[in-house]
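ugh finaly. both done.
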Amino acid sequence: MAKPSALRFDRLFLYALAFVIFALPLFIWPGITEYGYGKTIVATVAVSILSAAWGIDAWRRGAWEIRIPWVAAPIGALVAASLFSLLTATSGRVVVQSLVLVLVFFQLLMLVQHAARDKRDATLLLFSFLASTSLVSLYALLQYLGVMQGPTEGVGLEQIIATLGNKEYLGGLLAYVVFPSIVLLLRLRSSILRGAALVLIAFNFGTLMLVQQTGPIVGLILGVVILLVLWIIFRPVEPLRAARRWLVALVLLLAFTFLVEAPSGPLNSVVGLSADGTSWIGRVWAENSGRTRSWDWWIGLEMLKDHPITGVGLGNYKIEFVPYKAKFLATPRGAAYDWYIPRAAQAHNDYVQVAAELGTLGVLALAFLVVLLPMALWLRVRRNPDEGDRMDLLLYSTGLATLLVHAFVSFPAHLPVSMLAGVLFCGLAWSPGYGTTATWKVTLRGWPLRSLVLAGVAAGLVVSVVAVRDLRANVLMGRGIAQLQGGAPQLALATLEESERLDFSPQQTYFYLGATHAQLGNRAAAVAYLERCFTRFVDEAVYLAYAELATREGKTKEAREKIEVLIASRPHEDMAAKARFLDATISIQEKDYATAMDKIQRLVADAPKFEPAWIALGNLYLSRGSRDEARAAYERALQLIGTALASAEGKLAYPAGLTAAEYADLRGQAATLRSERDFVQERLKALGAS
């Protein structure tokens, strides 16, 4: 019989884990630039603390019994593939950062499996997660209705970010939790708690309908099919019979919720919850979303073709996206993608992203996981004689299946709360209350136990310190950006430099340090920081900013290389015009005036409202002695400048509704336009009246 002190620790450990599972989806911190970033830091520190407590308790007991699930083998293979990807990664630090998160969430799975010693423990952890996701849903609904503010003022779907930062992330999470939550209706003995679970499941389902995300809905539908097939195979009848009233109530409540909150439901016009009259089924592949995803997939496959064995490096997809986007567009298949799509940080398909980042080694490890996971779950269900346990395992498995299906069109493996859902369901399914099948038992005593505990505590301490420093760095980066946009570049410089010092792997910080130095007139330093971006943080703005500053610094060869990549990647038309203008400017610096004239003439034909091109055209005509043509070009430029300046000043006069970034951008545009206006007026004055 376990000692009272051991029992007390087990209960405290369980409650602490339940609190983490409850708190993580809800966690947001003012000043953090991205919601998921803060959650990963909290998860890292919490897992480190709980793991240390687990190990220290085992040291106190004198033995550490660990049940390792079979999925540890393919996870280990993915870790090995990630380490090999360091050989070809542009940024090794990004690989290390990403790999630590993989290990953190696997350790969280082990903690869940260890803590849930019986069905009561499992229901506590599951109810904690259901309650948390329901509060996230409530926040989203209040944003939709305008009771709480979303990204801007207003109502509707565009205001939904909840605590996850994106309604797409919310939709996926709510789909994953539906089936495992039904375990609570089967296991709870309190009618009050069952009733609460019933309402929360229906509420989450209603929010899922409301956010109109096709991928999660498709995953949910396939989940129903998978669950029915598995139920027919294993026939766990008794738990359904025992909870039949609650299950019938759930079906009726879900049907009513669908009628009320689904966009295609007949009652939505009465309650006013539908954003529009479009059926969610009709939203499949709508508005080019499917084609956009396929663009990301093909770019990932281009990365795999170039690095077939080890990939471009774990976490490096976002770094390599722009150059590989340009490469893909140059292929016959890429020629069909003739519209603008911005840089993607993820491939919107976790399987494709594994292939791109980890190569064939990663694909083999992933295939190992995809085959072993259902096989091991199948064995756990088959070898468990208890019908109630079987039904629980089928519901956990269906939740995992929904997540795995959604991963074909999204990236739940890169979202901390989605990963929390996956490891929670997997950890509960492998908890000892459901048997020991598909696990390996390891018992440590003596020096192996003490060595592992000491190593684990040390590793957890190091990772936690780095994580907290990264969190501080992120907050400082956000503050520095605000200072820069507020017109205080000297103050922003000190803040951003402190952020860089604290950050294990600075990324966007380099871009804003470059922008800050550019504002302060330190062009050489600005160019140096932007050059660092190409191994940490790469988007179209980095290419353009670097090319502009490098051109001014006389590094025309380097500038042209970046311009060629940027233009080949088909950026937004405004950015494309600026890139083409810089290309023509380089030709002027090289005294290749004929080529410059040809480029400028084609630019004004393609972008007739781009006033810098008209100014450059006037300058070129004037250098040739074509005064009339120069005057006409300057007059056209002055007309465009006047229109643009009036628009910018009008918005600056009434800044309500503008973000700090938008206000700073408008202020910069107005200053540039005034400078251009003064220059053009001087030239026209020198030319005299027409």
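ok and the 2nd:
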Amino acid sequence: MKRKLLCIFTAAMMIFLAGCGDVVVREETKRRESTGESWTVMLYMCGSTLEEDYSRASDVIRSLKYDLPENINVLVETGGSRKWDLDDVSADYIQDFEVQSNGLRLINQRPAASMGNSDTLKNFINWGIKEYSADHYIAVLWGSGGGPIGGTAYDSLYNYDSLTLTELKTALSGVNDKLDIIGFDACLMSNIETASAVSLYADYMVAAEDIMPMSGWDYWKLFDFISNNPSSTPEEVGKVICDGVNEKASGSEKNFIAMAVSDLSKVTELSQAFDGMAQTMVTAMDDVSSLREISYAMNELEHIGGNSLWEGYSNLIDIGELTSVVSDCIGAPAANIADAISKVVVYKQMSEYHNMSSGLSVYYPSKRKGDEIASYRDISIGKSYIEFIEKICIDTEIPGRVYNYEDSAGWKTYNDMAYENVLTASSDKNGRYILTPFHPEIITRAGVNFYVYSAEHSCYLYLLRDYSSKYDSSSGNYVYEFTGRLPELNSTAVSMYLVSQNTCFDIYSIPVVYDGALSNIRVSKSKQADDYGEYKILGLWKGVDEHSGMANRKYTDLKTGDVIIPLYEVYGEGGKKYVEGNKIRIGFGGAKITDKLMSDGDYIVSYTAEDIYGITTECDTNNLTASKGKIKIMDY
């Protein structure tokens, strides 16, 4: 019996070791016979923090063994990481590999160079086209993404130098043949600016509008499809890629799937339609009431990527949703762009939390940084849209500002009203909380802020801004009905920030320390009839880098035994000071968010009003006490 068990164990170990053999091989293997039209896939793999922190690039490389037919070539170029989890992939070199049935064969290597440099990308694609000439070409940029401002391929060897859209355009303009597909296995790259930048150099773009799951593309599914269906169109291949991402993702990764296939031949038409809509929006800005309609509508927009003090800001909104919400304000131009979007986005794979998404985003500075807005001029798809942005950001110092709205009649009217617009908040005899603006015609929404007093820290801590106050058009006041309830995570009051909205869901973010690092618990609150008001925890996400805009790809599920420490912003410190709360250990019941009666104690409440230019003003606070489920607000 022992001998038999030993034989079984030995056989099992031989199988295991065979499966864990060298990833990088020296010898060239014989291919299967050709199956038809030829394809060359070029994977530009910038390891960066994905490799250094998670060994993710190495995991992908290990998975790329595939028995390809003679007409299908897959090339991989590696770089951009200070270390690799594979012995034969070196941080000291840019290395080129060919995918084979037994692993990756090293073809070339040269001294390290920035993968955020346009020449590095151009040289790789041109080498692939020259040495592996084919009927069809796919170039895939693998790594981290930061949208139209940050770009992609952040190289940690070169201070996180990235391929900006201008550099991406420069690289592709020097490529010796047109690509069938330009793909991004990276976050936030399905946007109108990227599509416009690459539109002359590829037929289709395949990318994620939101966070690309860590699991990424299913390369086996892609290789299998083009090997067995070599006469497929690029559009059909794009659909397979999108479906593969959705099928491969698991757990919390699935919540933010937002993949799209874009027909780049139709992008110019979309850009022109969008700029026409933007021009109408600019014209409407000269009238305070028209601008209020537009600004009010834009409050309901879905924000893509990070959108809070703790997550960082990606400054992206869905272009289709923008069109939809302003259509009632500006009419025909919005209808034109909706038609143009449908021609560009030929396929999309969206999670339920992106069920209103078009598949393409567009830059919009919810966090207003003058230098960033100035840099956007170089990649904006139209003069009218950059004019709209510069004018809506009238309070922002923008270097080299082109468009000034201060001399217009609309700005003069607004400025006079804003100067006079005293905001007062008080309770009425029914206990409702009332905001009375002197000029309600320039206010677009008002939220009630809740802060709880912490005896431990001797200060008030932020909990929530609730936007459920109702506008009373007859009085011009905003009215808030206290429910006496606030959201809690496993019976602990936490701070929650609204980061995105659409007609079906509100998305909130809770800042916490998890595994020793700042993270954010993403939470949805349903607006749908069958589960209205219910919360669902979507996962933990580290957010975007404050300086580069690089979005983290890893979503993590909260599980039994996890420990988190909630973070709270200190009132009156302008987001510059925070404190840590008590540890929360996740038990067998899991993590749950529920609205519960406010704990007994002292609170302060205030209104924050947002005006037609997105400028926010917080009123003086009012004291509030909670005792046994009853609340009392005190006016000064």
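summary for the 2nd one i guess: Residues 2-19 form the longest helix (18 residues).
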